[in-house]
Amino acid sequence: MAPAEHKEVVAGRGLAGAHTPTAAQLSQLTARLQATATRRLLVRPAETSSSGAPACTPAKLAAIAAALHLQVDRAQRLAERQPRIVAAEPEELCRRVAGLAAALGLKRRQAAFMICKQPDHLLTASPSDVRGAIEELARELGVPFADAAAWAALAPSVAKRPPGALAARVRGVGVLLGGPPPRRLLAAVASEPELLARPLPALERRLDALRWLLMVRAQTARRAAAERPGVLLMSPRVMANKVRVLMAILDKDRRAVGVLAAKCPRLLRCDLSAVRAAHAALGRLTGRPERYVFAMLCHDPRLLVARPEGVVARVARLRAAARRCPDWAAEWARLTPAVTEECLSRGWAAYARLDFLLASGRAPGSCMAEVLLARPAAFEAAWPGFSAWHAAHGEQLLEARRQQRARIGAQLVRHAAAAAEVARPPWRRRATRHVVLQWNQQQQHQQQHAQQQTQAQAQAQQQQQQQQQQQQQQRHEQQHEQQHEQQHEQQHEQQQHQQHKQQEAELEQVHIMQLQAQHSSPQLSAVRPGSTCPVSAGINGPCAARSCS
Fold this sequence. Notes:
Number of strands: 0
Oligomer: single chain
Shape: flat
Distance between the termini: 157 Å
Number of helices: 29
Strand content: under 5%
Structural class: mainly alpha
Radius of gyration: 45 Å
């Protein structure tokens, strides 16, 4: 008799000798004995491993893995931990998975996950009983059945717990987290099932410690715990260490770090070495001072926990677009921290808009921040043609990737053929060499065809560039002619103005000479009759002024 079975029999004897067992105790003992007998019958002693867990053949293990939607290695580890999985037949597992999925309205993969987590309960209870328990739990919580079933798919242990007690515990956790909506509460409890196993007073003490360490209000601490319930499972010492490390990374006091951690509680649950690298990279990539980076983080601290590759790629795209458009370069230099953070938080579809405007030549005069932050419908209305361009651009990228995979596959095939050729005996290499040569010729023909297509595309691009250059030259020539005409008109106007000035000067001189002649009229009366006055003789001459004097 196995040690576990011997303990069960001894426990039964002691129970019978001590006092008369109740009906519930007898039913429990009977169920244990039946399970032991079933395991004896289904698993022979020769099929047990050294650890006592039932073993199975590779074929049965593969069938179990297929029935439970698992990989073979994971199915093997599961079989070592759960002997009931091995005891059941693969066909029975398939029927159980299909029945549970149909009863709860879930996918088969989700139902298989539930059976992997709770095989003892879900392989013995009927799907209708499980559905009844989930329906009662949904009524107790006041949520739709689909939400309760989705919660059970994430935390299968709720299917075997009493619905009334479980609902009361969930409501207590909801009060502790500030009373979030039922769906958010179920999502929080599903993300951390251990919350239902901890006493509520212990969770309250953790919440008080979080509020004291972050130096925030109680409602703010509750909101942070509701967003990331895992912080309530951390010890106060670990919380304090996390806060101190964040203070050292950001070079800020506890209150400033507490504000960031309250807005993004994930900072308390992530690897702080990655946070340190992200904080250093933000200033280096954006080229902004420390206070600017901290202002960005105050707007949304999730930049510290985002994927570093994504942040680097987004900053590189923004700076590359700014270099290609002078207007965007000037705008990038004067962006506020909040707008910069929002631009870095956008998806790749928004960054494709920048490429669209640059490719179509409509980037000058547009606002880079407005382009990134605009809604899809508003952007399509303001800049028509983006959807078609984006689809065509995506097809080009997919085609380039397919060609790259084809080239890599061709290289692998060529290397494999060469290795096989070397491994073959000499008297069998001729036929293989002929096949390899034929295949190489086909590949060369395909490469030549691809090169011709590439050259044709390059020639078409060159022709387009030449046409653009010719158009630019024509525009420059027109501008030069316009400038030449303007200069000629200005010179003509200047000459006319100078001639007009000269005429005015001559008229003034004539007027002066006339005045002088009138002034010298008394002297003219003293001249003898018949004599000629030198002034009257030379009044129209060039020396009239000197003769008068």
